[in-house]
Amino acid sequence: MKAKNSTNYPDRILEMYRTMSLIRAFEEIAEEAFDAGLVNGSIHQYIGEEAIGTAVCANLKRSDYILSNHRGHGHAIAKGADPEAMMKELLGREGGTSGGKGGSMHIADFSVGMLGANGVLADGLTMGVGAAQALVLREENAIVTVFVGDGTTNRGPFYEALNWAMIYKLPILFVCENNTYASSTATQTVTAGPGPVARAEAFGMPAFDVDGNDVCAVDEIARSLVEKIRNGHGPHFLHARTYRIKGHISRDKMLYRPEGETQAHLSNEPLLKCKEWLIENGVKQEEIDNIRNMAYVQIKEALEAAKKAPFPDKKLTYKDVQDLGSPYFGESS
Amino acid sequence: MTNNKMTHASAVREGLAEEMRRDPLVWALGEDLSTAHGGTSADQYRGLIDEFGEKRIVNTPISENTIMGAAVGAAVAGTRPVADLRMADFAMCAVDELVNQAAKIRYMFGGQARVPLVVRQAIGVRKGGAAQHSQSTEAWYIHTPGLVVVAPATAADAKGLIKSAIRADDPVVYMEHKDLWMAEGEVTDDPGELVEIGKATVMKPGSDLTIVSWSKMAIHSLEAAKIIEEDNISVEVINLRSLWPWDKNLVYKSVSKTGRLLVTQEAVQVAGFGAEISADVTENLNDQLKTHVRRIGAPRTPVPYAETMENEYRVTTERIIEKVKELMS
Predict the structure, then answer these.
(1) Tell me: the pLDDT tens digits for B255-271?
(2) Structural domains of chain B sorted by starting position, each given as residue range(s) with its CATH number in brackets
(3) Would the CB atoms of A324 and B245 count as touching at under 8 Å?
(4) What DSSP string runs through B57-102?
(5) Interface check A209 vs B, CB under 8 A
């Protein structure tokens, strides 16, 4: 991993290690909660991809927007959403980020600029360019980041949105997290051409490739791209190579993977790589392990709090549909 | 304040311009908005680019997913976009963004956000439009929780409803009829005058039978009611204007008085909005009905092209008159 000539740099990376640990702990404990029958829907884990969301969001301000996808827990935590409220959302409890209305795939926290995970692939892209247009209209010096996966590069709106961002020169960063699989299909087997960078470049968009498991490398490129976008240089594209260590959803048995493939990737996973870099750069192992352990303590507490939280009143089913022509609160028609 | 005679297209353009002057966060996006055409084919946007500039009259590529999706993103990010999808037929390319995103965001995020946008999509048979340029799809969106649906029949409605739609905090599907774009009517120049969403009007009072209608069918229903008056049949014509929410109070009041209901719609009759009105009135006013409720709508076929078949498909004033006579016999 790359080193950086700044005395503060290990502190910065240590802080990112803390965020990555929180995400990892959240995903592992969410799986335990799922297996215990506490989660009403399915969960899409971000395990193995934590460095990307963490390092990109470390270069954003609270007033910047992000739009995520179905695998959105990591992006939400990295942008500053409260893991306890997120856990409550997974368990469908009062105090959840979306009040128990959305679950894992519809976590949003507008107070930190997290405009939502999404159950439909590519919709974050089209909404993201619109959010960027709103920032321009409101004359705000903020930017939008949209996280998509490799599978989404085969949807039409991906092309519409990239073209759109370029013609209006919008302040937007597209981050393609290439985790190798589109659900249970190896993306390469259904994808023509040389890949996402070339596809973005076809629109004349500056596009870059990075090892998405190297938090220092993602941090460095993200900082440079965010600065360019903030300074009015228009949209940029970042392709981050990574590997989805878990299945598409937590109960996925991964029968489609060659034997030993996941195991082979474990030596390259981002938290391990980050820990090695921190030790090489003078951070004590004890301090690193302590951060990791504290993350598990915090998320276990979040789960306990979520288990104690009440379920939402069933009458809330009728709330927040719309202002005009809304069902009567508490009635069933 | 005075009334001026103008087309629907001009009335909506004036309504949009007034709201854009009032609120700098109102803007419009769609194909051909700032070209010399100034809109699809009826000048709905002509000249607005000169007054408001290219940041607020955004001429877009042919990218329906993004026209709709960008409107959703811009709405949750604090602006009030008016997205023009030309025809309801093309809006189908963007149903995902409208139905899965615009209609759901407030609810699925637990009320954290509002989606104050308007999506314009033209409905109705246009001569020779055939299967992909003449559909009326209002029922799709009335069926979708989270959406408001309006369909003006007069130029005054067209202006008043676009203004209310822009000011609403809900996503509003604004369905204008292609054949009405060039129809003229009296329109106020008072920028403060709105048409309240959810309020219908009585176009013609009557005592024997109620016709409930909207969009261009309201015009045909009014024409039918005037003709059939010569046979001493007194028809009350209600122009709904808003389809969701719809003005149940006014419809109930009228049907309670007349005891007879005919719903006229241009859309395919099967599972159309007329079915909902008929079922609702039957469920709630059955003891006041003198005869069972009737509907008129299009057959369950695609819209044909050749004139003979197109005329067979259309709901006409003559067919409405026939149906009224059937109901009164």
Answers:
(1) 999 999 999 999 999 99
(2) 3-188 (3.40.50.970), 201-328 (3.40.50.920)
(3) yes
(4) EEE--S-HHHHHHHHHHHHHTT-EEEEEEEEHHHHGGGHIIIIIII
(5) no
